[in-house]
Write a structure and sequence with these properties.
The complex is a heterodimer of chains A (355) and B (292). With 355 residues, chain A is mostly helical. Chain A is 59% helix and 6% strand. Chain A is built from 14 helices and 3 strands. The relative contact order of chain A is 0.11. The model of chain B has no long low-confidence stretch (mean pLDDT 90). Classes of the chains: A mainly alpha (355), B mainly alpha (292).
């Protein structure tokens, strides 16, 4: 309640101003600038004045269409096949460069599938961005549940009364204090195709049966390798948050479960898990936000390659905004990223509301 | 309840420790590998990866890689830069954020609720989504330096420090902690004629040890491990921090021994710090989770 003793507009504003001012200038202002720049052609350094371009930046990122290609036929109407027997189709660029289809101009093939003899081709204005979008979602969809689950297992493991348990807790948490940049470079060595520790380890464990592979150089394993490493680095962080959630559960509840004769699973299901609901929501939101920000691992380990298989949204935003000095393009990606993060946290809140 | 014999209990205990230790190996061996590799010449280093020797300080052990790494890159400069930027930011952040939190927790003023909500709302803005517009902003911000008014913050210490001083989480942690302090203390001090600043400095801050430790550790980890921001705003070697300095070691035929030496040099101080203060480190991470 307001009392004379604590009412002070002058001191109140004065004390809060340095902190609020810095946050306003360095967080709130750039946040709104991101929206503004994304509607212009702003560059980092440019002799020309900045112009308003509407939604062009978004259009050139998100443009997507499906085109249907009929097989090439000879004069008799027979389908043409190449030397391997595969059906020949007209080239996509006969459409994307044709004056008959101005709406597809400049788009490139992303992927295609076949239905019968016809091929359907998904073309995108910015194939690399689309791949970045998909990779980022894949990363979140795999890492968030796996990391949260493993962290919970570790927390349950460490939440025992055993001599020396603190030493284990200290070790499990250790990678968290090591920079992700250091971890990424270290794991680049571990994943190395020629002299990597992982290949040699797997080969030794399988008595030489494992051939060894270039984990980060192969499009089918690169993203997965980065996921595994990211989980290794950060799982201790969330273990600690789970652990603090576990310790808020009253011991009397466990005693009651014990008296009722509940087995371990029942105890977890009916005592532990309900007590962890708030923690679970928090952890999912935190991991999701961290996952969407995926950047350092990519920058240090793969630069988005091989074949764009590890492109991510933040990596693309930085490559444009900083690498190509295209502030407007980078800002547009940032806005898209923010809207995704915002809607996901709103959905997570809504799904777990008031229970 | 089933009777558990002593033998059975011993076996169970052994299994528990075995599981705990197995998991511990997964976490500690890559780091051990980093340190051990930094001590070995390239040829032996690569040969050792195929056996457990990779994790042992055996064979031709020397500090040669460290000498080479220091020769390849201005490591000392990078370390000094990182320590300076991290240290100054942590101190400024503690001062600015605790002062703001004091105002939110104890003072009544117009607009308090709105301002606090704005600050808490910034918690859902990932830094990565404002980095690019902020890059443009700081490239044009004014500054009054030795040469009078100048524009542009790129390639300076201040661009690495000032944007990171105030943040929603630190303010939130202080507000949480202050709200649990007994208000009578503050009111008593006021009755005795203390100014608001004296109340903050003499009464509240001396009681805030735990939250100061938490905020300092969290800020320290963020600042020392900073990568994306210095990567895009600092091109000059003289102000570059350690994580961006890694760029010197990327090359076609990577000299892994040197890389591992550099990684060890920049990581060991943090690990040492962590091992000494591990309870405080873990408590500070845990406290980010209590808001629920």
């Amino acid at each position: 309640m307001a009392s004379k003793l604590t009412t002070s507009n002058r001191a109140g504003w004065g004390f809060a101003l340095p902190g609020f001012g810095l946050i306003a200038v360095f967080i709130v202002l750039p946040f709104f600038f991101a929206f503004y720049f994304s509607l212009t052609n702003q560059r980092l350094i440019s002799p020309n004045p900045t112009e308003y371009v509407g939604l062009d930046n978004y259009r050139s990122l998100l443009g997507l269409a499906v085109i249907t290609l009929e097989p090439e036929r000879d004069d008799a109407g027979q389908i043409l096949r190449d030397a391997d027997g595969a059906i020949e189709y007209p080239r996509v660029r006969t459409i994307t460069r044709s004056d008959d289809f101005p709406q597809y101009r400049g788009m490139r093939e992303w992927f295609r599938w076949h239905s019968g003899d016809t091929a359907r081709v998904v073309i995108a204005s910015d194939v690399v961005f689309m791949k970045a979008l998909v990779n980022t979602f894949l990363f979140v969809l795999v890492v968030a549940p796996v990391q949260a689950g493993l962290a919970l297992c570790l927390a349950l493991l460490i939440n025992q009364r055993l001599r020396g348990i603190n030493i284990y807790r200290t070790i499990y948490f250790m990678p968290v204090v090591v920079s992700i940049v250091v971890v990424s470079l270290l794991w680049r060595f571990i994943y190395d195709g020629n002299d990597g520790l992982l290949n040699n380890l797997l080969s030794a464990l399988s008595f030489g049966a494992f051939e060894g592979r270039d984990w980060l150089g192969d499009p089918s394993t690169a993203l997965g390798s980065i996921m595994a490493m990211s989980i290794w680095q950060a799982v201790g962080f969330h273990m600690v948050i789970w652990l603090s959630g576990l310790q808020t559960i009253s011991p009397t509840l466990y005693e009651a479960a014990d008296i009722e004769g509940a087995n371990r699973w029942q105890t977890f299901r009916y005592v532990t898990w309900p007590g962890l609901r708030n923690t679970a929501v928090l952890i999912l939101i935190v991991i999701t936000m961290q996952c969407f920000a995926l950047f350092a691992q990519i920058d240090v380990m793969t630069n988005g390659g091989p074949l764009d298989s590890t492109q991510t949204l933040v990596f693309q935003a930085v490559e444009r905004g900083y690498g190509r000095q295209d502030i407007s393009g980078g800002s547009a990606i940032s806005v898209i990223l923010f809207l995704i993060v915002l809607s996901i946290s709103l959905v997570q809140r809504w799904l777990t509301r008031g229970r | 309840m089933a009777m558990v014999s002593a033998e059975n209990r011993g076996l169970r205990l052994a299994v528990r420790y075995a599981v705990l230790t197995l998991v511990a190996i997964i976490f500690i061996f890559p780091l051990l590998f980093m340190v051990m590799s930094s001590l070995k010449p390239q040829a032996q280093l690569l040969a050792d990866t195929s056996s457990l020797r990779a994790f042992l300080p055996v064979g031709d052990i020397s500090l040669q890689n460290y000498t080479d790494a220091f020769r390849r890159a201005p490591v000392v400069t990078f370390m000094i830069n990182s320590v300076l930027v991290t240290g100054i930011t942590v101190l400024l952040s503690l001062a600015v954020c605790s002062l703001a939190a004091f105002s939110f927790a104890f003072l009544e003023w117009k607009g308090r609720g709105v301002i606090l909500s704005v600050i808490l709302a910034t918690l859902i803005i990932p830094f990565e989504t404002i980095a690019i517009p902020l890059l443009l902003m700081v490239s044009q911000l004014p500054w009054i330096g030795w040469n009078g008014l100048e524009f542009g913050w790129l390639n300076t210490y201040r661009v690495q420090i000032i944007p990171w001083v105030a943040d929603g989480l630190t303010i939130f942690l202080f507000v949480q902690y202050f709200r649990d302090l007994p208000r009578e203390l503050i009111e008593a001090a006021r009755v005795e004629g203390a100014t608001w600043f004296q109340v903050y400095w003499r009464v509240v801050m001396p009681l805030a040890g735990p939250v100061i430790a938490t905020a300092a550790i969290l800020k320290f980890l963020v600042m020392y491990n900073q990568y994306l921001w210095p990567l895009i705003v600092v091109q000059q070697e003289s102000v570059r921090p350690v994580m961006v300095g890694l760029g010197y070691f990327f090359q076609l035929n990577t000299a892994w021994g040197e890389v591992m030496a550099y990684l060890t040099v920049i990581t060991l101080p943090v690990l040492a710090f962590y091992l000494v203060l591990q309870r405080a480190f873990i408590a500070s991470i845990a406290s980010t989770g209590v808001k629920g």
